[in-house]
Design goal:
Helices cover 33% and strands 21% of the residues. The chain has 171 residues and is α+β, with helices and mostly antiparallel strands. It has one domain. It has a 6-stranded mixed sheet. The radius of gyration is 16 Å and the shape is globular.
């Protein structure tokens, strides 16, 4: 069997539910506490969350069911702070845990579920901005490689909770 077809078989096609989005929200909240405890300088971002979003292939799968899932890319977008932009390369990972989505065989043996990549980005937006408007401005601007990559697939809001499951992109 070819490597490509083996990888395709290991990708999940189970539906991502609102309960899964809630679980991702909790993982992100724990990650933020851990990040800001380890690096107190960035604590200034703790109260500047604009939105948390499922992005890339898993978001596309949530929107149209046509893409299979290797992992979850979850981005937290912050209102920029004068101390400086949120460190764009500060990526962490978490284990989604057991679920119908299974696990990717290439992930660490300690993972019991799909890998969750947790990424942060500050946007040139004020605290309290409408999350949908802010994300759509960022994605439509194409002002960075990240914005262009995210806009190539889909973005689904996880937080704020009132917008959970809303497709921010395509909008």
């Amino acid at each position: 069997m070819s490597k490509q077809s083996s990888q395709g078989r290991d990708r999940a096609d189970a539906q991502i539910t609102r309960a899964d989005l809630s679980r991702l929200s909790k993982l992100c909240a724990l990650d933020r506490v851990d990040r800001f405890t380890r690096r107190p300088r960035w604590q200034v971002y703790a109260d500047r969350v604009i939105a948390v979003a499922l992005c890339q292939g898993a978001a596309l799968h949530y929107v149209d069911g046509g893409n299979k899932i290797k992992d979850f890319d979850v981005w937290t977008f912050y209102a920029v702070h004068p101390v400086g932009p949120f460190p764009p390369r500060w990526r962490t990972t978490a284990d989604f845990g057991p679920s119908p989505l299974g696990r990717w065989p290439g992930d660490p043996d300690s993972f019991t579920g799909r890998r969750v990549d947790l990424i942060g980005r500050s946007l040139s937006e004020p605290v309290g901005v409408d999350p949908l408007e802010a994300l759509r401005r960022y994605l439509s601007s194409g002002g960075s490689a990240s914005a262009r990559a995210l806009a190539a697939k889909a973005v689904v809001l996880i937080d704020p909770p009132r917008l959970r499951g809303t497709a921010a992109w395509p909008g």
